[in-house]
Prior knowledge:
The structure is a single chain. This protein is of the alpha/beta class. It has a single domain, classed as Alpha-Beta Complex (Spore Coat Polysaccharide Biosynthesis Protein SpsA, Chain A), CATH 3.90.550.10. Helix content is 27%, strand content 18%. The protein has six helices and nine strands. Strands 5, 6, 7, 8 and 9 form a five-stranded mixed sheet that branches. Helix 2 packs antiparallel against helix 4 (132-140). The longest helix has 11 residues, at 65-75. It starts with 17 loop residues before the first strand and ends in a 19-residue tail after the last helix.
Amino acid sequence: MLAGGASSRMGRDKASLDLDGTAMASRVASALGDCLSTVRIVLRPGQPNPTDLPRIDDHHEARAPIVGVAAALEAAEAPAVLVAACDLPGLHARFLLALLAHVPASGGPEIVAPRTSRGPEPLVAVYRRTLLPELGRRIGAGELALQGLLRDCDTRFVDAALLREIDPDLEALRNVNRPEDLP
């Protein structure tokens, strides 16, 4: 789970934001834990961990999701990692399992991500470790947009129509960036 961002639009740390008595990151962690055997949280060094998940420290100075994805892949033992941002309070296991159903056991695309009418959704996606050299190159060059990575790499897009069968309003993809986005 990615939780090391600056939270500048929210004005405070989103990962520890309390929603009905539960930290937002804990909600996402619960959804991930319902369908994965290993769940970890990517944080800035020194950032408090609002969950009981093992942490991965993201030591890069840039505060961009691509850096968190790289840190998660570097720490992974598996050939691919399901990445989810901590600011998706509606994320649930059925949605994640529907996405994971499009990931081949071996080989296949480097990225599997949902695509809605707004475009690709890179913050709930599966990334393969084979992307690490490309991520390092992009981060080094200051190319920090995940949208570009999804566009330029071998990506399988899962159409929103398929995901709406599980989540009709796509609540799993509704992120909370500003106070007015809170449920």
